[in-house]
Amino acid sequence: MLHDPDLASTPLSADAAARYRRHARDWLASHLPTHMRADSLDYRSPTLEESREWEAAMHQAGLAGMTWPTVYGGHGLGLREHLAVNQEVGALLMPDSVSSIGKELAGPIIMGVGTEAQKQSFLPNILAMREFWCQGFSEPDAGSDLARLRTKAVREGEQWRINGQKIWTSGAAKAHYCLLLARTGTVADRHRGLLMFAVPMDTPGIRVVPIKSIDNKDSFAEVFFDDVVVPDSARLGAPDEGWAAALKVLTIERATNRMYRPWRFESEMGFLVRALRSDPLLSRQLEDAGVQRQLGDVLGEIDAHKGLVHRSVDQIMAGESVGARGSLTKLFWSECHQAFAGFALSQVSQIGPQSSPLAQRARKFFTQAYLFSRAETIYAGTSEVQLDLIAQRILQLPREH
């Protein structure tokens, strides 16, 4: 638990915020299992139950749900404390959350447009890791352009009948609920007639088909909705409010979620350098001027990314809307990390069975990181979509006709 209970209930001074950061650093250092650290020789992929228990413990320690109201299981703190914890999380090569959809997307949306009953029902369970969520947005013909989605919701009295298909749905196989975006009108309506639901995944008519990804994992899935009936109480927000709620989701996803990324990338670079230095032959690579220049470029991009994160926090704290500037952050981190992962792979590809144990661990880590990075410029909105949003809404460039 928190060392000082007052930290979770009162606005923090600069000194108190510094103590909160130290609490996060000390707690993580003493509680994070060695086998969950990707730069440890003891590393192994944690089971779902191990991840659930770990994240529940983080919440109890005050390191999850920092900005959520205490009445819904949060800690009632501010965005700066959220950032401070993220910096400490990023400093360790620990696993990403297995409940990121619930914590980062479903939770904030429910707080924004949900009823009081929905907030009381869903939010505490998300933070306590009792319920997992998946995000039912993308479809085979409607990925980054959600205005083209075809999944249909038809009202029948006090219930809705849903038919359609979602794809690339992360965590669908383990999820208890789906944050589902469906259409009440026709595809020609585009942004109108969209509605969001909290759909229990055990509802009759839902079928989950796992998808094997390039990194040999099956965390993605297709989800089919065949005459799925849900009560009107499953609706999140008013009819026709789905598009506005979806935009809130995407703004959150692109600008404020996983603020630890630049600090995590910095940790990855440190791991790469340590691994190369651990082997006499590999350490010579670090003496190459080209390699040194590329590492310097990575450091510069990490610092720029940190600046974008801090700027977003300042804007939100000042009451400003991040809006399309979230697209700038998303474009920057995804492109930069994808490039770094490619550089890291070029270095670890020279690691063989005679190399040091740490170097061999690094080869496994960065091979997986490279494969996963191929998706980073696609999920949460493709780079092409981000460039279009930046051109239109930030630079206000004219459209070509």
TrEMBL record:
Keywords tagged on the record: FAD, Flavoprotein, Oxidoreductase
Domain annotation Acyl-CoA dehydrogenase/oxidase N-terminal: ranges: 20-128
Residue intervals of the Acyl-CoA dehydrogenase/oxidase C-terminal domain: 240-395
Gene3D superfamilies, A to Z: Acyl-CoA dehydrogenase/oxidase, N-terminal domain (1.10.540.10), Butyryl-CoA Dehydrogenase, subunit A, domain 2 (2.40.110.10), Butyryl-CoA Dehydrogenase, subunit A, domain 3 (1.20.140.10)
InterPro entries: Acyl-CoA_Oxase/DH_mid-dom (IPR006091), Acyl-CoA_Oxase/DH_mid-dom_sf (IPR046373), AcylCo_DH-like_C (IPR036250), AcylCo_DH/oxidase_C (IPR009075), AcylCoA_DH/ox_N (IPR013786), AcylCoA_DH/ox_N_sf (IPR037069), AcylCoA_DH/oxidase_NM_dom_sf (IPR009100), Mycobact_Acyl-CoA_DH (IPR052161)
Named cofactor requirement(s): FAD
One Pfam family from the record: Acyl-CoA_dh_1
Family to which this protein belongs: Belongs to the acyl-CoA dehydrogenase family.
Protein name, per record: Acyl-CoA dehydrogenase family protein
Organism: Acidovorax bellezanensis
